[in-house]
Design a protein that fits this description.
Belongs to the transposase mutator family. With about 400 residues, this protein is of the alpha/beta class. The chain folds into three domains: about 80 residues, no CATH class; about 45 residues; about 240 residues. Helices cover about 50% and strands about 15% of the residues. The protein has 18 helices and seven strands. Strand 4 and strand 5 form a beta hairpin. Helix 4 crosses helix 6 and helix 6 packs across helix 16. The longest helix has 22 residues. The radius of gyration is 30 Å and the shape is elongated. The model has no long low-confidence stretch (mean pLDDT about 80).
Amino acid sequence: MTISKELLDELLSGVERPEDLLGDKGLMKELKVRLMERMLGAELTEHLGYEPHGEPASQQANRRNGATRKVLKGNDGAVPIDIPRDREGSFEPELIQKGQTRIDGMDDKIIGLYAAGLSTRDIRAHLEEVYGLKVSADLVSRVTDAVLEEVSDWQNRALEPVDPIVFLDALRVKIRDAESRQVKNKAVYVALGVTAEGEREVLGLWIAANEGAKFWLSIMNNLRNRGVEDILIAVVDGLKGFPDAINAAFPDTTVQTCIVHLVRHSLNFCGWKDRKAVAKDLRRVYQAVDDEEAAKALDDFEAEWGTKYPSIAPSWRRAWQEVIPFFAFPPAVRKIIYTTNAIESLNRVIRKTTKTRGSFPTDDAATKLIYLAIRKFENTGRCVREWVAARNQFAILYPERFNR
């Protein structure tokens, strides 16, 4: 729609200062109000079937019946709107629906502030300071609670039948326990899949009191019930019983311990002055051509460092059955499963969002914020780098499973 110069000149004829245009009583706000009231009037005309100041059909009892003043909250602060009425009360406008109290995407602003980690109190203060809006804590809670419906749909959505790689991890978040009313460190479980097209997809999030293999088994069953038929490689940390939990639901899945987790765990045993040297010698283990060469490199490492740091080599041997699958894969696949960096980058996004909150009052409050962080993470770019080479290797290594 093109607005003529003559109309613009007429509208701006009384505008001399910026506040005359943009202020609380300025032209822009008044124009918005007038336009909305004009549209509401047109809706009522459509509903009743006759124009303002016109006459309804002879047998028609329902007529115009004045207007009701309603104050809406929007980007411009409080906006008073006169909503036209009919005698029978059957008019339900589409532009401003019954019960509506906000316009201009105010709900999206509240959710955006919540996703940034602001508390309910912080959101209320921000809206009052920036927009001059006084909103109740109950309103903020109701708006953010709408996210839970989206979470439920997302958490129960159908999944692809095959995930070439799934990264599994848990992080800790402080949440007030419903029964004891004490703040506890609860485990937030996250499953991040890589699809056959090389796209990262968060398969779900779950909250429990503790991280354990038993709960991981319930998560594996959840993925199976939602359509996952096969996982080629599951990359995990060193949690005891984790491989059994995965293979109970997906017997053919190769479970791979995160190499970086093992290295970091090893470095916890040595002094700062030796960390670089120890890390360099451990690199010979996980960069070996095959498992035999890796075992020999671990023996050499123990001969060099075993006396000074006797705990490192045994920790690798205890996890050896979940380390050696790594050596059966070509470089293109090794590069992706070498570390849980993919899921650790997700965890960084979650921690950045949650760090401003000392604790959460409920599991639902934590779920809402973590889901919004996940949504932000997935919008930043979902493709795994250099996936084409890895995909070709998967097609050769798992011809029937990968191409089902």
